[in-house]
Design brief:
four-stranded antiparallel β-sheet; alpha+beta; 156 residues
């Protein structure tokens, strides 16, 4: 078991494009469906696996391009340390002053270490200077507890 780190920051309106943040339905629309439905399905099916947008379900980071992996660690504490460094770096830009509190951020790191140690994932989001958004995720791999069928993005 190991843990992959992901980071995305960008305009909040882009983040809000939820259809592009969820995998397409396993079956395409049936023949005879409205053309706009077929077009939308094809768009999502093509863009979801290649998009840098954070998926709605954390485990689906694993189907994204391996170039989006910001780090990989076998040790949960080392992965959580990456999170600590990212939080420290971005905290001055958090839109909510209470989220900048060092104790508050330390609890995220501690909680993440525990979750990763038990095979879970950790995912956090923060508003930055509006309208920007920051998404940080640590995803357990090989296998992922919630989606064990998803392959490791770094497997050869």
């Amino acid at each position: 078991m190991h843990h992959h780190a992901y980071l995305w920051t960008g305009p909040k309106p882009r983040f809000d494009q939820e259809a592009l943040r969820r995998p397409p339905h396993p079956e395409p629309p049936p023949p005879g469906s409205r053309p706009e439905l077929i077009h939308r399905y094809r768009e999502v099916a093509a863009e979801f696996p290649t998009s840098e947008l954070p998926p709605l379900e954390t485990a689906y980071w694993l189907v994204k391009p391996s170039s989006l992996v910001r780090g990989t660690w076998p040790d949960p504490a080392a992965a959580a340390d990456w999170l600590r460094r990212q939080l420290a770096s971005y905290a001055p830009r958090f839109g909510n002053e209470a989220q900048r509190d060092a104790g508050h951020l330390a609890r995220f790191v501690s909680s993440s270490t525990e979750r990763l140690g038990s095979g879970g994932d950790a995912s956090y989001g923060f508003y930055l200077e509006r309208p920007s958004y920051l998404s940080l995720a640590l995803v357990t791999c090989s296998p992922n507890r919630t989606r064990p069928n998803l392959p490791c993005p770094l497997a050869s």
